[in-house]
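2024-03-11 09:14:02 DEBUG pipeline.ingest accepted 1 chain
2024-03-11 09:14:02 DEBUG pipeline.ingest length=203
2024-03-11 09:14:03 DEBUG pipeline.predict start
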Amino acid sequence: MIEIDYFMSHGSPWTFLGHNRVYNIVKQFNVQLNMYPVNYGEIFPISGGLPVFKRPLQRQKIRLQELKRWAEFLNINLIPEPKFFPSKSLLPSLLIIAAKIRKTNKDFQLAGDIMNALWVEELNVDDENVLKNITDKLELNSEDLLSLAKSQECENIFKEYTKIAIDKYVFGAPTYILEDQIYWGQDRIEFIERHILKLNNSQ
């Protein structure tokens, strides 16, 4: 089966803009999606990246313009400068990993709902009560998942995922890897679709 490795961050608006669209491709072509929440705080320093507010003003300005353009184009009510950005906690990403460990089959949806809370609803996803409400709405065991998210097991997996990203030359969010091809950014999703079509036609 064709597999796509998906390296993401709950704190990335670009990850959010591409999240459901890459899922649509997965469903359309029946491919496997391997989702890896990773720590870009570790990836940026070794790959030449900078957190948003440490970037030159020119880059910050174009980033906001591009977010507005893409949000309008995709008809997503994304707020480019939400009240609780940047997310200062790793807990939301760890919670997504906890949902994977428990085999809830809702980790992808949970990731989307967490990003929607941050980028559309303007909620503080670093707040455990906010995360609890999100998991409760998905009919997940929020107490168990939050407890697991704070465990050493989850932290170790998070570190493992981040190492995988570094080893595969990931430097930004989102990044999708198909075979040996690295697709950085939600605006590369159409290239992923073409890649899959090429693979299917060669079989």
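2024-03-11 09:14:41 DEBUG pipeline.report Strands lie at 3-8, 32-37, 175-178, 181-184.
2024-03-11 09:14:41 DEBUG pipeline.predict end
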